[in-house]
Amino acid sequence: MVAATKKPITAIVLGSGLGPLADAITISREVPFADAGLPVSSVPGHAGKFLFGTLEGREVVLMKGRVHLYEGHAPEKVTAGVRWLAEQGARSIILTNAAGTLNPEFHPGRWMMLTDHLNLTGTSPLRGAHFQDLSETYDAEWHVRFRESAARLGMPLHEGVYAGNRGPQYETPAEVRMLRSMGADAVGMSTVLEAIQARAEGMRVAAFSCLTNWAAGMSRAPLDHQEVLETGQAAADAMIRLLRETLPQ
Ligand code: HPA
């Protein structure tokens, strides 16, 4: 018998409220986080498992739920899933998250493709002297492909800088002004450590923020986790279309 060539797998990490993305996948196998040696998240909307399957004929593995620093986990634990995905053969990874928008032109309900990030967590998953180059964390070729796909679909897709905070509290209005002056367009509590880990594993990385709310002080509404989940669910369809359009290429 001729051994089957191992197909490259694309990993997709689902952020808060983005569970509906899993419905777009034809699932062949599930692995609970615990079986992969990952801590199990306690946050509603973050039930942890890996889902292997296909999207438009392309082999994918979804990481549904993730592990956060704000739950008290060490940075290495937060990125254990990324290392596990690399061991499973994932050569590229698409990270999604829910984020507050800092840019008055980027309205809640839309998606932002990350061009770069600010790691404000004060920590790193890379210990020891691993001087990882991050001059192109988010893959430039993928930017072009996703930008072109979004244009074909008529889908608004912003591009900007994501600030990764530790949380779990949302920001103060003063912190939001600081983040804007630092060049950030969106703020959240995930993604940056995973992106660093993925680059250290040699993976190609793309990341998208679902802009679920105006950041603190930019509107009069107080921030609410439930609103974040609901806006994420409503915006998930657009991301499914974007992935369907882009991944088969
Ligand atoms: N700040 C930080 N994290 C978030 C936000 C926010 O406004 N919205 C969703 N995740």
Polypeptide structure, described:
The chain starts with 8 loop residues before the first strand and ends with a helix. Helix 3 (140-153) packs across helix 6. It is globular. The protein has a five-stranded mixed beta barrel, surrounded by four helices. The protein has 249 residues and is α/β, with parallel strands linked by helices. The chain has six helices and nine strands; from the N terminus they run E-E-E-E-H-H-E-E-H-E-H-E-H-E-H. The chain has a single domain (9-246), classed as Rossmann fold (3-Layer(aba) Sandwich), CATH 3.40.50. Residues 98-100, 170-171, 187-189, 212-213, 215, 223, 228 line the site of hypoxanthine.
* Shape estimate: globular
Write down how many β-strands occur, each being a DSSP E stretch of 2 or more residues. Answer: 9
User: What gyration radius follows from the Cα positions, in whole Å?
Assistant: 17 Å
Please summarize the sheet with the most strands: 5 strands, mixed, barrel
Low-confidence stretches: 1-5
Secondary-structure-based class equals alpha/beta
Could you give the order of the helices and strands?
Answer: EEEEHHEEHEHEHEH
The fraction of residues in strands falls at 25-35%
Give a quick summary of the entry.
By secondary structure, the protein is an alpha/beta fold. The chain is 27% helix and 28% strand. Hypoxanthine (HPA) binds at residues 98-100, 170-171, 187-189, 212-213, 215, 223, 228.
Task: Name some characteristics of this structure.
alpha/beta; 5-stranded mixed beta barrel; Rossmann fold; binds hypoxanthine
